[in-house]
Amino acid sequence: MTPTPTPASFPLPPPTAADRPGAVHRAPPVAATERALPAGTARVEHRAIRPTAWAAPTVPSDPPEPERISRAALTRLIEPGDAAIGRAVQRHGVVGLVQGFYEGAPANRLGLGADRITAYQERLRKFNPVTDLERIAKLGGRFIIPGDSEWPSQLDDLGDSRPIGLWVRGLPSQRLPSLRLLALRSVAVVGSRACTAYGRHVAGQLGSELAERGWVVVSGAAYGVDTAAHLGALAVNGMTIAVLASGVDICYPRGNEPLIERIGRDGLLVSELALGMNPTRFRFVLRNRVIAALTRGTVVVEAAPRSGALSTARRARDLNRHTMGIPGPITSELSAGVHTLIRNGAATMVTSGAEVGELIGAIGSDLAPERVGPILPRDALEPPVARVLEAVPASADGAPVQRLAHYAALSEATTVQHLHELSSLGFVERHGAHWRLVRRK
After folding, report:
1. What are the backbone angles phi and psi of residue 61, rounded to the nearest 5°?
2. Which three-class secondary structure state does DSSP give residue 175?
């Protein structure tokens, strides 16, 4: 019987100059990293993140196992969330599937279209997944797969469309434990990119409050609400995770480059896409399902009726995660989508980090403080005494006992008794034969 070949035995192309140890990493050409964009679609401008001073030094290690190599190859071959590939992995195993692509296996054997298999076969010859694994290590990151101790098992709720693997940038430490542990107490904060000043303020405050309560804030590093939530968590030295729609070595949007680099240093950058792969509109939508599945709940701060943030909320609801919404002005179109979620019962209204924690946290240990109005001195008065106080007019002349007893529906003797009690408490004073309210200075 002929032994089944493994990815370690793939006749991969020889390493280029950029693959040699010590070489400066440059983002691979677009043609080698992603599929051609449809006609008329503008290509996304990006900037590659190169190794910095905080990147982990290259440490000699054992060769990666065949399954990790195969999954790394798939992250460059396929689009995230491909359920057909997920089913094929279940049937053939990831090593057998990638080997079948390389060999050009018959379509009926793999359960995929012949054209698709031919395209994968051609693309497999243009890159080396081992090189990707070496590059992520130079950037201070790693590639985690199902079965690793760091793999968040809640992602398995996505079924056949669960991620093939996750490229993670950020070094595990006492402050920054594994992704799996961070995800156990995490909450997603999402919303409009073109948010209002109100939305930006609320998202930043929410990120800070959640981080102060020990929650990990997860978002997508986009403009608007995402940026405010990340910055809010970082402002209080909290933990935050950015789930990207590109490779973890790509800064997008470019205006958020300082934020993304800081999250890569003080938090975690996570992506399903291999290094150098650019974001597209479709990949942003697919990224949202990972945000929803990774966290215990999703909060939508501002979202128009067609906002992409609502897709994250719907994903969270379908995965039986808590879905929450921050209300906004009823005249704001950017809050209309959130209000619809709340009105339809698809989201719970929350107004603070404490209320979010109470909803998704442990029973009895994450309770939000009860909101009550100010307690006034007259609130402690007995009802008959309070009625006498209400009967005293606000005029400087006051009123006689007989009139006060009539309005309070009490006898004159009882009214006099209560008036003296109110006088001792500083509410009323005697003015000749009349009683009047004490004027406050």
Report:
1. -140, 170
2. coil
**Half-sphere exposure of residue 283: CA atoms within 13 angstroms, side-chain side:** 23
| Mean pLDDT over the full length of the chain | 84
Q: Which residues of 208-233 are buried (b: 16+ CB within 10 A; e: fewer)?
A: bbbbbbebbbbbbbbbbbbbbbbbbb
Closest CA to 281 of 13, 42, 120: 42
Q: Are strands 322-325 and 297-300 parallel, antiparallel or unpaired?
A: parallel
Q: Are 240 and 218 in contact (CB under 8 A)?
A: yes
Residues in the chain: 441
Contact 274, 72 (CB under 8 A): yes
DSSP structure string for 12-44: PPPP-GGGSTTPPP-PPPHHHHSPPPPTTPPPP
Is 290:243 a contact under the CB 8 Å cutoff?
yes
Over residues 104-125, the pLDDT tens digits come to 888 778 888 888 888 888 888 8
End-to-end CA distance of the chain: 101
Which residue in 130, 95, 97, 115 sits closest to 14, CA to CA?
130
Residue type, 388: V
Report the C-alpha gap between 165 and 186 in whole angstroms.
20
pLDDT in tens, 124-134: 888 899 999 99
C-alpha count within 13 angstroms, C-beta hemisphere, residue 254: 5
Residue 188 and residue 298 in contact, taking contact as beta carbons nearer than 8 Å: yes
| Residues 72, 98, 275: CA angle, nearest 5 degrees | 20
